[in-house]
Specification:
The complex is a heterodimer of chains A (about 600) and B (about 600). By secondary structure, chain A is an alpha/beta fold. Chain A is built from 20 helices and ten strands. Helix content of chain A is about 65%, strand content about 10%. Chain B is α/β, with parallel strands linked by helices. The chains are: A alpha/beta (about 600), B alpha/beta (about 600). At the A-B interface, helix 3, helix 4, helix 6, helix 7 and helix 8 of A face helix 2, helix 3, helix 5, helix 7 and helix 8 of B.
Chain lengths: ~600, ~600
């Protein structure tokens, strides 16, 4: 909503509009020059051809009839005209169906890829900030539409300029006073058109929040996420339908309140300043010249009348395309800002990262997601030796996952420093650093690709098949793998493959864990790796992990204290600070918060009389 | 065979379009009526000004009529035109927006009523679901469009005939030329459309891939994986391949489409245009059987005839395309539900004596998830289902709630087949908390009550929140239980973490005073203390009720009256915890494994579990 308000108030300088449109045009051109050139040329050719055919051609024939030219001369003229037009048509169909059809996907790719490459470099914090995130979504989802608009813009401009030049020349030659009518009509209709457009925009703005409500209800009823809820709670859908009705009534009310104004302005811009000029005033002028003054031939009357609308259209080109260009420019400005945005997380020095078991140290680290928010992590200091197994436990919301994200350098701490093998992690190349850590998060995603590709998360030719198989064995996936018809090359998710396989929650988790096994990194980080697994699977996983991670540093978060118990050292977090630390036995002996939590969970397993 | 198929499609398309027309008429007679009138007025003006207006004027000039008469004529026409313009503007700016809103409401109410009445399986059947989402997505606009296209065809046809008559009136032979654009549009144009459609269809899988990559790049769900691995290389390659494929497809069809397009344009424009000119000038100069006035009119009428034919053809094409959408809409509206939500039947009693599964099997697509299951649950029993992932536990719950019907066997409540009960009343006996839930864009209170109304509602909600351990969190929000959830409609809307959301879902189940309560993994995202307290709440709430729950947390299963262990869709063991431990079978093995994880021992001999 605020975005739209911004649109209406943003004043862009002409220079800015020009520069932005030119920027996008250059990008499209570099992707497929043939496409851009041919569609532009074709528009020019088309308008010039129409001019010759309709205006000059008919004019000549009517003249020939009025002044009795010899037939063979006229016939030759017509035949040559036909031949030229036919040749022109060959060019047109090739331009549209060959060069344009091939060029458009290429242009789209160029623009989208530039956006994607940039998107992946953006800091993760962009996704937390709704303002930034909306921009990101807008830029990416609008790209195709804006490219289409740019193409249309190019075509309309080329056509418009051609129409303008040919019409003006024609009228200047034939009857220059006509131009006065065209200009008058044009200026007046422009004024009312602007008012109409502004009003339409106001209406759209007012409608927006109610349309969003309507769209939401639509989504709830057609997405299958909500289908079960609606069936188990039918009264809830009654509420939604009531909301839907209200939103619809509001939209009706808004439209009604603007109806009369729109009607008036519409009538003014369509009839009074436009058609009235063409169909009454101008024709009266022509008839006056022909019948009263006798200074115009009848054939001229017909031709000028027919061409008048073309003249007006030629004039309107400059004012029609400018607001169009402005809207495109607003969007392109966002793209350019987006592309110019440098990620905050950069490296001071670029170094390759060592691959053996890491030592990690946090010194007085604090962190808040946004400036002014309360600290999510409060002055945390801890030290992990290479090969140590560390567990993070605590209540929901204590800061465990955030700490992990800091260690992974998805965010930088607001205070304090994080060291890997003794060096501030900010020293290392961001991508290399992150790439040298094997991770599984709670909200992992399965991609629409093969099993193999989902394990290595890279191009398939880089996969070492044996290593992939072993990784899947370690995570307990091999039984499921055996049931897959195409084995490692089975497509996952039903996104584009008809026979794509959808894994259950637990199976997906095993696949995600195998990513870690495959990567074989010096530091392994696991966030709730077994929440969806049954006890046997969890038990087996723990065993595998211990085996495979023998020489690695491991950090993990889990609510299942049976897993965290196996760690060399446990850190208990509360409100972003470490409240207890030590091995499992030490913490039980302390009989503090950890011990209470342990008893709550483990105590249940022992029979109580 | 091919011909019959084509006829069928045409007949189908017509019948579908009529269906849409009748639907629109039933919701807004006004819209249908004005749509027709506007089209009529539009075409009338067009024909009038191209055929009669100029003809009269040039004729009058040629015959030397008084200028005064001509001016009068012009003014009268102008006056008439003004009236029609007032009407058209009124319809466009007042009637259309208002009726569009009414139409939207009427259509969607119908669709939503159907959507919530069909069985859950429809949402999981990708074929049905795709058609349904296509129908729902642009239903509002599409129905209005169908009305416009149909009138366009009817009136366009009438306009065509009257223009042809004019040409015939001037020169019967000129009418023969009309065959040319007919061939151009209806023959070549048709072929061209067919090829373009084939090209579009071949490109659909590639479009899907590009849409997928687009989504992955901006949705926050994938943001972490993209930053932590090289999966972007994979995505980029998928996108590249899809683009290259589309370019290749464009090339494949280019020459065929261009060829048809060329002939279409040539026949539609060049032949008729230059042909009539040649013919007319011959008649005028050589055989001297056509006046200047007639020549003038013939040239402009011929142009109009061409454009009217094109308009007619485009409307026909659009109507056929819309016909496909309408087919989906119609199929959906006429679909006969297998488990209609509003199914009437016996009203179940409030007391639950028994729930019985009698040799129940269930298969989804071709796989059997449940095989020959038989068991009975008695009044006020607390029953637990355990087993490996994918063993069928959640399916049993869904069958019990009659979200699906069994493929074989019968489910009985109090001895009666559940298919005979009034469905809503039957479902009302259950309160359920599922693992995959949805929080709606409504207040906390509404999200808990889900549209149901009780005495002392607020108190009920607060009690439920307390039991679920969410009360403090809700009270910390600015509007308490009236806080809006999700940021869908309110920037300040509350968004909960995974654990908090889970507690809200459990609160829903607590708030509903049903005789049977069902919990599916209610604590997977909770920390141990919260989990412990939750199970205490659940057990307390389950006194004097029948309760069913699924859990991997076997320590909580201990308190159940009976435990069913599932494997591969069958019950392999059943009994109380003590009985099963004595049996020392699969259940005991699973329990011991989980206990061993906690009790830090390698075996549990001698420990009472």
């Amino acid at each position: 909503m605020s975005d739209n308000k911004e649109k209406i108030n943003t004043k862009q300088s002409f220079k800015q509009v020009w520069s932005n449109n030119w920027f996008l045009l250059k990008m499209c051109f570099s992707a497929s020059p043939v496409f851009i050139i041919t569609i532009t040329l074709d528009q020019i050719r088309n308008q010039v051809s129409i001019f010759f055919e309709h205006t000059l051609g008919i004019g000549y024939v009517l003249e020939a009839a009025e002044f009795k030219y010899p037939f063979h001369r006229v016939a030759t003229f017509i035949l040559i005209l036909a031949a030229c037009i036919t040749l022109g048509m060959v060019f047109t169909v090739l331009a549209g169906n060959l060069w344009a059809a091939k060029g458009l996907p290429k242009v789209r790719r160029k623009v989208k890829m530039a956006l994607y490459e940039k998107a992946k470099e953006q800091d993760l914090e962009r996704y937390d900030n709704p303002e930034y995130y909306n921009e990101l979504v807008l830029v990416i989802t609008e790209a195709d539409r804006q490219i289409d608009r740019m193409i249309a813009f190019l075509q309309n401009t080329a056509a418009g300029i051609s129409v303008f030049i040919t019409s003006v020349i024609f009228f200047a030659y034939k009857d220059s006073s006509s131009v006065i009518f065209a200009v008058a009509s044009y200026v007046l209709s422009f004024i009312f058109n602007q008012m109409y457009v502004k009003l339409s925009y106001k209406v759209r703005l007012e409608r927006n929040p109610f349309e969003r409500k309507r769209e939401y209800v639509k989504r709830v009823f057609y997405l299958n996420d909500y289908a079960k809820e609606i069936r188990l709670n039918p009264e809830a859908s009654d509420i939604l339908i009531r909301d839907f009705k209200r939103a619809n009534d509001d939209i009706y009310r808004i439209e009604k309140s603007y109806a009369k104004r729109k009607f008036f302005l519409g009538f003014m811009r369509r009839f009074v300043t436009n058609d009235f000029f063409s169909y009454v005033l101008y024709i009266v002028y022509l008839v006056y010249k022909a019948a009263v003054l006798g200074t115009m031939s009848y054939s001229s009357v017909a031709i000028l009348y027919n061409s008048f609308s073309r003249l007006k259209r030629g004039m309107s080109i400059f004012t029609d395309i400018y607001p169009y260009a402005c809207e495109t420019s607003l969007y392109v400005q966002k793209i350019r800002d987006f592309l110019n945005n440098e990620p905050k997380l950069t490296s001071n020095r670029e170094l390759p990262v060592p691959k053996q078991a890491k030592a990690i140290e946090l010194r007085n680290v604090s962190f808040a997601y946004r400036n002014g928010d309360a600290n999510v992590i409060n002055n945390v200091s801890l030290s992990i030796a290479p090969g140590e197994k560390i567990a993070l436990v605590g209540y929901n919301g204590a800061g465990k996952t955030t700490l992990i994200k800091l260690i992974m350098r998805l965010y930088d701490p607001t205070e304090g420093v994080i060291l890997a093998d003794g060096e501030d992690i900010r020293v290392y190349k961001v991508w290399d650093y992150r790439n040298s850590i094997g991770t599984v998060f709670q909200d992992f995603m399965i991609f629409a690709a093969t099993v193999k590709e989902n394990v290595i998360l890279d191009l398939p030719e880089k996969a070492e098949t044996e290593r992939v198989k072993r990784a899947l064995e370690h995570s307990g996936f091999e039984d499921r793998l055996a049931t897959l018809e195409h084995g490692l090359d089975t497509e996952l998710t039903g996104e584009f493959a008809q026979d794509g396989v959808n894994l259950s929650g637990g199976e997906g988790q095993k696949l995600a864990i195998s990513r870690v096994f495959y990567k074989d990194a010096g530091l392994i980080i696991l966030d709730e790796p077994s929440s969806a697994l049954d006890p046997i699977a969890e038990y087996q996983l723990n065993r595998s992990m211990l085996e495979a991670a023998r020489n690695k540093t491991v950090i993990f978060i889990s609510h299942r204290l049976s897993t965290t118990r196996l760690a060399d050292k446990i850190y208990m977090l509360e409100n972003g600070s470490i409240v207890e630390q030590g091995s499992h036995e030490e913490l039980l002996a302390k009989n503090g918060k950890y011990a209470a939590m342990w008893r709550a969970q483990a105590g249940q397993y022992i029979a109580v009389d | 065979m091919k011909k019959r198929k084509k006829e069928l499609t045409l007949r189908e398309a017509i019948s579908n379009n009529i269906y849409a027309m009748r639907l629109a008429f039933s919701i807004s007679k006004e819209r249908v009526f004005h749509s027709m009138l506007v089209r009529f007025v539009g075409y009338f003006e067009w024909v009038f000004f191209s055929a009669f207006f100029m003809r009269y004027i040039v004729d009058a000039l040629d015959k030397g009529k008084q200028p005064g008469i001509i001016f009068a004529f012009i003014l009268i026409c102008g006056g008439g035109f003004m009236l029609t313009s007032l009407y058209t503007n009124y319809v466009e700016n007042v009637t259309y927006p208002l009726t569009a809103t009414k139409l939207y409401y009427g259509i969607y109410c119908k669709l939503y009523a159907k959507a919530r009445n069909v069985e859950l399986r429809c949402y999981e059947d990708s074929d049905f679901y795709n058609r349904y989402t296509m129908a729902i997505d642009a239903a509002g606009d599409n129905v209005a469009n169908v009305v416009d296209y149909l009138w366009g065809i009817v009136i366009g046809f009438i306009a065509t005939v009257s223009v042809f008559y004019t040409m015939y009136d001037i020169d019967p032979f000129a009418l023969l030329f009309v065959i040319s654009p007919i061939i151009g549009n209806f023959v070549f144009g048709n072929y061209m459309n067919k090829f373009e459609f084939k090209r579009y269809q071949e490109g659909i899988p590639n479009d899907k891939v590009m849409n997928y990559v687009n989504r992955v790049m901006y949705l926050p769900d994938y943001a972490k994986e993209i930053r932590l691995s090289k999966v972007f290389n994979l995505l980029r390659r998928q996108y590249d391949k899809a683009t290259d494929n589309n370019v290749r497809i464009a090339h494949k069809y280019a020459f065929r489409v261009a060829f048809m397009n060329f002939w279409r344009i040539t026949f539609t424009f060049t032949v008729i245009f230059e042909g009539v000119l040649l013919y007319a000038i011959y008649r005028n100069l050589v055989s001297k059987t056509m006046s200047l006035a007639e020549l003038t009119v013939l040239s402009s009428v011929m142009v109009s005839a061409t454009w009217i034919l094109i308009g007619l053809f485009e409307d026909i094409m659009a109507a056929i395309k819309c016909g496909m959408f309408v087919k989906n809409l119609r199929d959906f509206c006429e679909y006969e539900e297998k488990i209609p939500e509003n199914q009437d039947g016996i009203m179940p009693s409030d007391t639950i004596e028994s729930i019985e599964f009698d040799h129940v099997s269930f298969s989804y697509k071709d796989e059997y998830t449940i095989k020959d299951l038989s068991f009975t649950i008695h009044k006020n029993e607390i029953v637990a289902f355990v087993g490996h992932n994918g063993a069928g536990k959640t399916t049993i719950i869904k069958l019990l709630l009659r979200l699906y019907d069994p493929s074989e066997g019968v489910i009985r409540l109090n001895g009666i087949d559940i298919r005979e009960y009034n469905l809503r009343a039957y479902r009302n006996l259950f309160a359920a908390a599922f693992q995959d839930f949805k929080i709606f864009g409504m207040t906390v209170k509404d999200n808990v009550l889900m549209g149901r109304h009780y005495e002392n509602e607020d108190e009920l909600v607060i009690q439920a929140l307390k039991k679920a351990g969410l009360y403090e969190k809700i009270m910390s929000l600015p509007e308490g239980i009236n806080t809006m959830m999700t940021k869908e409609f309110d920037e300040q809307g509350a968004v909960f973490s995974g654990g908090e959301s889970q507690k809200l879902i459990v609160a829903r189940a607590f708030a509903k005073p049903s005789p049977i309560k069902v919990f599916d993994e209610p604590s997977s995202a909770l920390d141990p203390i919260a989990e412990y307290e939750l199970y205490n709440s659940i057990m307390k709430d389950g006194q004097n009720r029948t309760m069913i729950f699924i859990s991997h947390r076997l320590s909580s299963v201990k308190n159940a009256d009976r435990v069913f262990m599932l494997e591969n869709g069958r019950i392999i063991e059943e009994g109380s915890h003590k009985e099963l431990m004595k049996k020392d079978g699969s259940y005991a093995a699973m329990y011991k494994k989980q206990a061993m994880n906690y009790l830090a021992v390698d075996n549990v001999e001698g420990v009472e579990l």
